[in-house]
Specification:
The chain is an alpha/beta fold. It has a single domain, classed as Alpha/Beta hydrolase fold, catalytic domain (Rossmann fold, 3-Layer(aba) Sandwich), CATH 3.40.50. Helix content is 32%, strand content 25%. It has 4 helices and 7 strands, in the order E-E-H-E-H-E-E-H-E-H-E. It has helices spanning 18-23, 41-51, 89-101, 121-139; strands at residues 2-6, 11-15, 33-38, 56-62, 80-85, 106-111, 148-150. The strands form 2 sheets. A 5-stranded parallel β-sheet has the order 3-4-5-6-7, sandwiched between helices. Strands 1-2 form a two-stranded antiparallel ribbon. Strand 5, helix 3 (89-101) and strand 6 (106-111) form a beta-alpha-beta unit. The longest helix has 19 residues, at 121-139. The protein is globular and about 45 Å long. The N and C termini lie far apart (38 Å). The relative contact order is 0.14.
Length: 151
């Protein structure tokens, strides 16, 4: 396991090398790699992508506490999708600030009617559609020129 200490919060994120192991499995070796993290899991996804940027095609974070990764955000290489609930003001602001730190292709998607847990089925479906769209374009290498989207 790789460990990365994120200084401001004294948070230690452990990112298992599961996906890297999959790259050496003959059944999965040719597949593209993307990381998805929710909440604090977004930090783990960003750290893992930073460790092997040449192998990771994209990172997607939902309601992510990306403020805990502020020191590494400028170093992230794969494109990043940030999805936040419009009704979660604190997390929305955190992600809006993170956009300014990212130096790679990125998109911030605000789902206006969603609560912080995305408990509403319609809003969760919206997130799933946006994620599927993002992944399908990134895994095929098609860039999207619009960095901020409100659904």
């Amino acid at each position: 396991m790789a460990r990365e200490k994120l200084h401001e919060e004294n948070l230690i994120v452990e990112t298992p090398d599961i996906s890297l192991g999959a790259l050496h499995n003959e059944r999965t070796a040719g597949l593209d790699v993307a990381y998805f993290g929710v909440g604090v899991g977004a930090v783990a996804a960003l750290v893992a992508a930073l460790q092997k940027p040449e192998l990771v095609y994209t990172v997607a974070c939902q309601g992510g506490r990306v403020d805990l990764a502020r020191d590494i955000l400028p170093e992230v290489k794969p494109p990043v999708l940030l999805t936040v609930a419009g009704q979660d003001g604190a997390i929305k602001q955190i992600n809006e600030e993170a956009v300014d730190m990212l130096k790679v292709e990125h998109r911030l998607v605000v789902v206006p009617q969603a609560s912080s847990s995305f408990a509403e089925q319609h809003e969760l479906d919206t997130v799933a559609r946006r994620l599927r769209h993002w992944l399908s374009h990134r895994m095929q290498g098609t860039a999207n020129p619009h960095p901020v989207t409100t659904i």
